[in-house]
Amino acid sequence: MTAQTDYALPEAPSGATHAAAVRDLNVSFGSAHVLKDVTLTVPAGRVVGLVGESGSGKSTLGKTLVGINRPTSGEVLIGNQDFATLHGQRRQQMRREVQYIPQDPYSSLSPRRTTGQTLAEALDPRRADPVRHRDVIAAALERVKLEPSAADKYPHEFSGGQRQRIAIARALILTPKLVIADEITSALDVSVQADIVRLLQGMRGTVDSAMLFISHNLAVVQEVCDDVVVMFQGRIVEQGPIDAVYRDPQHEYTRKLLASVPGSPGFTLD
Hints:
Shape: globular
Strand order of the largest sheet: 6-7-8-3-9-10
Organism: Arthrobacter ginsengisoli
Domain ABC transporter: 20-258
Strand content: 15-25%
Keywords: ATP-binding, Nucleotide-binding, Transport
Protein name: Peptide/nickel transport system ATP-binding protein
Largest sheet: 6 strands, mixed
Number of strands: 10
Family: Belongs to the ABC transporter superfamily.
C-alpha cells in the first residue's frame, strides 16, 4: 500500500477557517494502536465522507473528534481550539460545538422525554423548557421535514426514519461547527435510507455546520458528500473531491473498495 496522498481538502469558499482538524493524531487502547498519525481537515460548510471497512478506525476518529475518546498524541482542533487539551467547564462548552448523530435511532432518544423536551435539553441542559424554546424547536423540526406537532410526541410514536430525523434535528439545533454522522443510514430499511439521503442532499448548502459523514456505503457517500477520505488500518490513504477520487482512485485500497460497488469505478446512482 502506498502512503497518504498529499491532497488537502479545500477551505470553505468564503475563506473561513476549518470547522475541525486533526494533526498527527494517534489513539491507542492498551496495546492496540487504532489511529496512526492521522492528519485531516474538515472545511467549514462542507460534507466530508469518511469511508473504509469495519475496523479501519472510522468510528474511533469520529468519537475522538467529539471528545468521547482521548488522543494518545496529536491535536484535535475545533475551530482554532485544541479540544484535546481542554478540561472542565471549557471542555463542556466546546463539546456543544461538535454534535454526534449515532447509528441507532432507537437507543439515541430517551423514551421518557418528548421530542420537544429532547430538543430543549440540547438548547439549555440546565433549564430545558420546550415552551420557552417553542419557535426554535418548531424550526428545527421543519428543517428535517417533520411537523411542529412532533414536539409533543414520544420516541415510540415515530418510525425509525423519523427518529433519525429527530436525532439530526437535535444535532443541528445548536448550529455547531461540526456534525459527526456515524453510519446513520445503516440501521434503516433501504427505502428509509433513501429518505434520509434525500433529506441530507436538500440540506447541503443550507446549514452552516460542516459534517463528517462516516459510512461503509460508498454509494450513499457519493450522493451526500463533497469530499471523501479513505481509511485503511488506522491511516488515511487517500482523500480528495469525491468525483475525482471515485473517477480516478490513486490508492490500491480505494480501488478495492470501489470495485465492491456495482458499476465501479466511476459508478453513479439514478
